[in-house]
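Handoff note, outgoing to incoming analyst
You'll be picking up this chain. Sequence as last confirmed:
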Amino acid sequence: MAGIKAGKHDEYLVGYQVEADATDLSETEVYLGSDTAQNSFAWLVPLSEGRALVGMAPRRRANGQMEGFIERLKSDGKIDSIASRPQTWGIPIRPLSPSYGDRVLVAGDAAGLVKPTTGGGIYYAFLSGRIAAESAHNAISSGKCTANDLRGYERNWKAVFGRELRVGSYARMLFETLTDDQIERLMIEFLSDGVLDDYIGEDVAFDWHGRVIMTTLRHTNIRRVLGTLGPSAAPFVARLMHAR
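Most recent structure output, in case you need it:
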């Protein structure tokens, strides 16, 4: 309707989430593995008043994994009962290009401007929304609102967080090639004192994953494990190492 052809937008996650009763939960828990959320992750997040969020964001449909995850948490005594109806939503993880048209600017998850690693999109929605507002103001003030006049909007958001999206996308591609055993080996190495000590005191920003990803991948211990992952992972490791 806006005159922007999105093409086949097949790069997306599907989010699932419910509220559950979880009286003894105090810390956020993240779950990985093909038997939990294929090519992605699941979460258990404490709320107030004995409630918690239970969810996952797999590729495509969960195909029964959400139900299995809930039953696993019940069996482990993590949660008691489900306290809300499930919510489901799509999360595009590849930017729309172009993200502008005649008299149109697209921001936030409508433009696929989310973290490819986790599917989180609030921060990039704020950033792209502010850039879109500035672009719209300039366009209206000058009376120039064609697609050619508005192309600076995409150039500007790419300058602010375009590299973050590229690094995150390559990291997700790499992650999706890994087996459960390979993920386990990487996590054991990452959580070891030899690696964690190098990050204590680092200025790690929750909304900027690129620096953490790149620093981690360049660590000697992590690179040693990456070198054993096999040919399927090699192209994505190379892309990450040379991301600009």
